[in-house]
Amino acid sequence: MSRQIILVTGPARSGKSEWAEHLAALSGKSVIYVATAQTNPNDLEWQARIEKHILRRPSDWTTLHVPIKLSATLDAATAADCLLIDSLGTWLANLLEQEDSTWQETLQAVLHSLRQASSDVILVAEEAGWGVVPAYPIGRTFRDRLGMLVRQIGAIADPVYLVTGGYVLNLSQLGTPLTIAQQS
């Protein structure tokens, strides 16, 4: 099975979505943009952010709005497709109220679907753990779950890119991956 799993991660406003879009355009496949954001017509600033992303995408790309059911979307894609999932942090935020056991089931289902995917998959993820520990439990839950999600997808993906300060770094070439035993 010839397919590629790519992870693009980095801080806010670093250009990670633009880099992921560039990679998707280079794939030569039918690009399906998987938008995980939920729209809110009462939040004009959020709507403006979404619109900026929409305007940047080529008109021949298909857009799917998938705020929750990421596994099913991965399972349905074909080898002719390139899924661009933007973003994991937003998807996680949509599921943040899940109990730990339910979250673990959801996470394992997505990881399984990702490993079995026949399409190319480019995933965009935020880096939320570079700052202070959040003062509230829900913030700590988000940060910890996102960190582990990105780490586990990073173990599957090749390449893994870090976009920061206006530069793209290929971590797969520059770094040394941790083994699964070290990730506990």
UniProtKB/TrEMBL annotation:
One of the record's GO molecular function terms: cobinamide phosphate guanylyltransferase activity
Protein residues bound to GTP: G10, P11, A12, R13, S14, G15, K16, S17, A35, T36, A37, D86
Question: What biological-process terms (Gene Ontology) are attached?
Answer: cobalamin biosynthetic process
Superkingdom of the organism of origin: Bacteria
Q: Active site annotated at which positions?
A: H53
Q: In which pathway does it act?
A: Cofactor biosynthesis; adenosylcobalamin biosynthesis; adenosylcobalamin from cob(II)yrinate a,c-diamide: step 6/7; Cofactor biosynthesis; adenosylcobalamin biosynthesis; adenosylcobalamin from cob(II)yrinate a,c-diamide: step 5/7
Spell out the NCBIfam families in the cross-references: PRK05800.1 (NF004469)
Q: Supply the name of the protein.
A: Adenosylcobinamide kinase
UniProt source species:
Phormidesmis priestleyi ULC007
